[in-house]
Write a structure and sequence with these properties.
By secondary structure, the protein is mostly helical. It has 17 helices and no strands. Helices cover about 75% and strands about 0% of the residues. Helix 3 packs across helix 16, helix 7 packs antiparallel against helix 15 and helix 10 packs antiparallel against helix 13. The radius of gyration is 28 Å and the shape is globular. It starts with 13 loop residues before the first helix and ends with a helix.
Length: about 300
């Protein structure tokens, strides 16, 4: 029987050496996943995912008679037939242009209010002492599981009684109310990871709670605030259920306006295609503009 003492000096038995030399299965799969073939596959998946967006863009650049005659891929073989006439007609459509303005008037306040109020509440739950703090935070977390559909009828009756039903303010307040639980939960957990010594040093320098929040906490929480802002902006901009119920003809956003065009004009593709593409471009532009802050916020949350 061979033992470690019987083996030559500086060597180990062959069995354990072979076991130690074997790499874990997860490491080997991760190494193979980073190969060129997998990258090519991921690029193909990304291109396939972009096909509907590209098709919508090319459809919006075609004349109505061309849309009725053939599919959008005909543009690739006949690029000379590209026209911006549909966009010119869209800008002359008062319902669409006013709905774009209404969408901005709904989305921007709903996003700003959720970020600001959520940041203040998140800081309070993370670093301020007040009676029932943990129970109040549990109540906020519990609101995350409440579906939007449950509150549609009660809040519609409430808004009707106080004169907010059918107005932009009513849509904004609904989005703010349902966006705050997630905002408070996200920012409280992020702010709680700030080193206590940093906050205590600022307090020793004479900083009050408001100044501490504005000068220390907000700059450190910029990635999380950017991530929350992007999520809230995309949710409100693309929402149709809440706007369909709480808005009227004068306050409807672009999603409801496009749905109305479908209901009234079944073949009005020359308005639907450019309108849908414009409604898609704005959130994409916002995402790519704040992409770096979004990734930083996600990675910071993952590391912490």
């Amino acid at each position: 029987m061979t033992t470690a003492a019987d083996s030559p000096a500086g060597t180990a038995p062959p069995g354990p050496r072979r076991a130690a030399g074997r790499r874990p299965l997860g490491a080997r799969l991760a190494e193979r996943a980073g190969g060129g073939l997998v990258r090519v596959f991921l690029v193909l998946v990304a291109l396939f995912w972009l096909v509907p967006t590209v098709g919508l863009l090319l459809s919006s650049l075609r004349a109505p008679e061309d849309m009725a005659a053939s599919g959008w891929w005909k543009v690739l073989s006949e690029p000379s037939r590209i026209t911006f006439g549909s966009y010119a007609d869209l800008l002359r459509n008062g319902d669409i242009t006013s709905s774009l303005l209404n969408t901005a008037l709904i989305t921007v306040p709903a996003t700003v209010l959720v970020v600001v109020i959520g940041a203040l509440a998140g800081y309070a739950f993370a670093w301020m002492e007040f009676p029932g703090r943990d129970w109040w935070f549990l109540a906020v977390v519990g609101l995350l599981v409440v579906p939007v559909q449950v509150a549609l009828i009660p809040i519609a009756e409430l808004f009707g009684s106080i004169g907010l039903f059918g107005s932009i303010a009513g849509v904004v307040l609904f989005h703010v109310g349902f966006g705050l639980p997630f905002a408070v939960f996200l920012l409280r957990n992020f702010f709680a990871e700030i080193p206590r010594e940093l906050l205590e040093a600022a307090r020793l320098d004479g900083a009050g709670e408001l100044r501490l929040f504005a000068r220390v906490v907000m700059p450190l929480g910029a990635p999380a605030l950017a991530s929350l802002g992007i999520f809230q902006f995309l949710w409100v901009w693309n929402d149709m259920l809440v706007a369909l119920i709480f808005s009227d003809a004068g306050s409807q956003p672009i999603t409801v306006a496009l749905q109305t065009q479908v209901r009234q004009f079944g073949s009005n593709v020359d308005v639907l295609a450019p309108g849908a593409f414009l409604s898609m471009v704005v959130p994409l532009a916002v995402f790519f503009a704040f992409q770096r802050q979004f990734v930083s916020g996600v990675m910071a949350g993952a590391v912490k």
